[in-house]
Amino acid sequence: MEDSEIQEILQRARVIAVVGLSPREDRPSYRVASYLKGCGYRIIPVNPAVQEVLGERAYGSLGEIPDSIEVDVVDVFRRPEDTPAIAEEAVARKARVLWLQEGIVSREAKDIASAAGLQVVMDRCMLKEHKRLVKPGA
Hints:
Layout: H1 3-12, E1 15-19, H2 28-38, E2 42-46, E3 52-53, E4 56-57, E5 73-76, H3 83-93, E6 97-100, H4 107-115, E7 119-121, H5 126-133
Parallel strand pairs: 1-2, 1-5, 5-6, 6-7
Antiparallel strand pairs: 3-4
Helix pairs in contact: 1-5, 3-4
């Protein structure tokens, strides 16, 4: 995906569902979500093991997020083998983007999401891309 496309995603998005968001401050998912929240994005934690992360109510799955909440980006911190099912949930949620964090690659998840018209970003860190393309020097 071109830098200009990633930049546009980051500039247009308002609500990011973070699948696998940990409540532990030492985890990458927490650091990324905390940074994004600090930049003004609404973060929706998706983690069945917790009630709340970053002061936001957590949901057990994308499907449990109320329909009244429009999810722009599904940011995934899960193993590659878990991502096809997450891609299917992202499609059902009518998300615009499926974002697989750095180190996560799944052709199957990409195919599922792309076939439904979602943009797909793989193997890229949302925090790093935001700092590089939206807030250089941050």
